[in-house]
Amino acid sequence: MRMYLGSADGRSRPRGRRRRGLALAVAAGMVGTVGSAVVPAGPARAAVAYGTTVTQTFRASATPSCTISPTADVTRTASLPPTGGSTSLSGPTDARFIYANGDAVAASGSAMATNASVATGGGGLASFVVAETASASLSVFQAKSTAACGSGGLLASATPKQSSLTVVPITTSGWLNLAFSASGAGVIGVTAAVGLVPPGGSDVSTYLFIQQSVGSVSRQVYLPAGWSVAIQLNVSADASLRNPIDSRRSASVSATLRGTVTPVGAAVTGERGKRLARHAVALPGAVSCSTGRAGVRLTKVAKKKASSVTFLVNGHKARRLKRIKRARSLAIRVPTAGAITITAKVTPKHGKKVKVRRSYAACR
Q1: What is the pTM of this model?
Q2: Same domain, 219 and 341
Q3: Most exposed among 15, 81, 176, 343, judged by the fewest C-beta atoms under 10 Å?
Q4: What is the pLDDT of residues 266-284, one digit of tens each?
């Protein structure tokens, strides 16, 4: 899958022109070193396939004069359909290294677990959670001769890897609220990425989010209707043993990537305000991004108890109604870019002014 970096701000949007100079296409297995961590240089290449694919790989290796039992490479896979669901992979994998002269034996172990959950709705992706852990360790429990498999050479190594790729079509434009967290110790790798596949395309053309280090990051990105969103999380741990006291003999990493989708124009808060205002005015559950209008309603309570109602959008007066004679519905204009807050100020026939307000996700 070919991906390109997008905006680094808090609200990233797809760019019309590809930034080829920042392409991060990477063949499977390639890594780059950042400090003490081995970090995948970018998401793996893959064609678009709707749904979720989870892959685990454990690789153990030793110098040529050593034998490995059982088979070194173990791979597991699991998948979810594009309609969502949940899946998990777990279980330790062990390999034993037996040196040629039988004088020294090393054991390696790896614990791996992946949990993926995807929920879909009328607009395609609704929410997802992917959590991955990987750990590797090597120990020498009989070390009569550390040079049995070659003096100064690599005696053994163990590398568990986890990867997950979710691709879901977007039928309704919305905002994807991302939360990423990762921690680890030793030589580890982590990559979290979210990209967009254009209509009719087979590769991701635009990166909306990429994180390749431990820590916590939150981001909100825009998902345009008609495109597909690709979500990827990779982790790896690497342990190596060159002598019985090698300090790099263990490593562990844990990462979680989660997201929820808010449709454009949808309410992101409830109606907040005084009881009279909430009963006199009904604010909508969503605004129309296509027409730039919001439907509001004056109730029978407004007819009975209010002398006037003033509507404000983002603090600016949008409409004022005096002498409310009946319950009625009406439309007020709202912006088609940026967040929206609608406030209704109710002037009662007796008493002080009260108000009710509600906020909505931006249209763009």
Answers
A1: 0.78
A2: no
A3: 81
A4: 999 999 999 999 999 999 9
